[in-house]
């Protein structure tokens, strides 16, 4: 199957996850393009879609939201999976005992689940390198330590591989 992995990434963490998903899908025999959401020229040429964005302030980035809006009909008709790259740190549950990955689901997922009926949605831990921050995000440097976001690379490659392999296996069962 021809699969498009389309991503939106501000500082590169989500791009890394998209590349990795692309590699696993290729390993499984699919033909895969990994492209930025705003650089996709001919989405109609793909049989299936994996779309991912970093989450900022609980929202997917604008270019990913635009991609979904522009291609809504296509995504409704073809197998589609969504992923978000979000929470930082090593804690799996928050101070109230809630699953961090559930709490980090971007606001758009509920709407997209209703409208696109994706085959799956997933949240992965992300990464934050303070030296890369630009614009208003730089202010994070001056935040009191308690409020500051954890910095480091928390991407869980095993979880990413496992999810991508599941997507690949489901695609293999899907008639072209
Ligand atoms: C200002 C700021 C706000 C953020 N807000 C959220 C958020 O609301 N939810 C979340 O899960 N992650 C949040 N993050 C973490 C990023 O989503 C995470 O670092 C992500 O992996 C970055 O991906 P990118 O490098 O592809 O942009 C935030 C990070 C920054 C710097």
From TrEMBL:
Identify the residues that the record assigns to the Flavodoxin-like domain, covering every copy.
3-168
Give the UniProt keywords, A-Z: Oxidoreductase
Q: What is this protein called?
A: Menaquinone-dependent protoporphyrinogen oxidase
**Gene Ontology biological process terms in this record:** heme biosynthetic process
Family matches, as PANTHER family: PROTOPORPHYRINOGEN IX DEHYDROGENASE [MENAQUINONE], PROTOPORPHYRINOGEN IX DEHYDROGENASE [QUINONE]
Q: What is its EC number?
A: 1.3.5.3
Any one GO MF annotation of this record: FMN binding
Task: Check the record and name the InterPro entries matching this protein.
Answer: Flavodoxin/NO_synth (IPR008254), Flavodoxin_dom (IPR026816), Flavoprotein-like_sf (IPR029039), Protoporphyrinogen_IX_DH (IPR052200)
